[in-house]
């Protein structure tokens, strides 16, 4: 049993220079911990409510002072000196205190900050690592480390929309360790930097998550360049390193059509287009291949391509147990992109994880485009035994904090990487 002695919050800046929230939880035992909350740019309509101030004279309305105030006053007053037996007890109290379906009153960012800080404080109190605490929380044994999906090229909302799709990622499938995975990725990244200089005559400009973002002529050119970078680095595309594509289709879906380059595709045509990509490129994961409310056609997409690739739901599922259950019943996906801030508490995210596993889905634990130097995500991906971890590129400190933490976990635990699919 843990008793909260104090909760304090602070407005900090994320990796895009936008405000987010940091929370410190101090327990009566003296254990104290701080956690920072990420923020997304490419967000699903069903995500829990991220509370922003709306004052256009300050941070263009994106300030988080009200969320900070909610932690420092309403939430602290309600939870202080209250004993909690578990993370679920704490999170259920937060959800009840907010009292809205999407956490609109107090803000999902405020609730998640408290949820995360409490979990880290409990780990300190119990004298265990955070990854072991996360594993115990969901009743899992630690048997492997997640494989990495690492951002190489970016478009869409992460890079100003020079192409419609959002990211092309590399997946080091032949690597035997996290250390080797990062070394392989470094070689591909340097190859891509040279390719960009030669082909596009430009510096290696970076997008929100550190991916390279030259003026690709088309989506196919973006994927072609990724394959070329892999090959020029001395690897075999599809054997040593595979690709994952974040299509993020909701952002170019309008008037019942997918506006991809110069094409306006119906859903069946979009599925055929994705099928062509799978035949042409070594793609092992398609994320948000269709728009988030195109439910009927997600079922068709999974039926058509689910044996060849992960059909990964991000905006489509929003780490929301109700949407995951519906998708499972309709066979509308076979993998979950798990982002804790999409739902707002660790307990609800754990329910999403369980639902995905109960339906034999793969799970990718993911960061957001607006990140902080906090590294709790690496512990979560390990403790919750994710198949993959998706953090971004290997070029920015808020990304590297997670990779470096995973390297430390690997050195400490000697756990092997998740076996390739």
Give a quick rundown of the structure.
The chain is an alpha/beta fold and 421 residues long. The chain has helices spanning 65-79, 87-98, 108-126, 130-137, 178-200, 219-232, 267-280, 295-305, 321-329, 340-343, 346-358, 376-383, 397-413; strands spanning 2-13, 19-27, 32-36, 83-84, 147-154, 167-172, 241-246, 253-254, 257-260, 263-265, 283-287, 310-313, 335-338, 362-366, 388-392.
Structural class: alpha/beta
How many helices?
A: 13
* Fraction of residues in helix: 25-40%
Which parts are unreliable, with pLDDT below 50 for 5 consecutive residues or more? Answer: none
How much is the average pLDDT? 96
Distance between the termini: 40 Å
Trace the largest sheet across and list its strands. Answer: 5-6-7-11-12-13-14-15
Description:
The chain is of the alpha/beta class and 421 residues long. It is 40% helix and 19% strand. The chain has an 8-stranded mixed β-barrel with strand order 5-6-7-11-12-13-14-15, surrounded by 7 helices. The radius of gyration is 21 Å and the shape is globular.
Task: Write out key terms for the chains shown.
single chain, 421 residues, alpha/beta, eight-stranded mixed barrel, globular
Topology, element by element:
Elements: E1 2-13, E2 19-27, E3 32-36, H1 65-79, E4 83-84, H2 87-98, H3 108-126, H4 130-137, E5 147-154, E6 167-172, H5 178-200, H6 219-232, E7 241-246, E8 253-254, E9 257-260, E10 263-265, H7 267-280, E11 283-287, H8 295-305, E12 310-313, H9 321-329, E13 335-338, H10 340-343, H11 346-358, E14 362-366, H12 376-383, E15 388-392, H13 397-413
Parallel strand pairs: 5-15, 7-11, 11-12, 12-13, 13-14, 14-15
Antiparallel strand pairs: 1-2, 1-4, 2-3, 5-6, 6-7, 8-9, 9-10
Helix pairs in contact: 1-3, 2-3, 3-4, 4-12, 5-6, 7-8, 9-11, 12-13
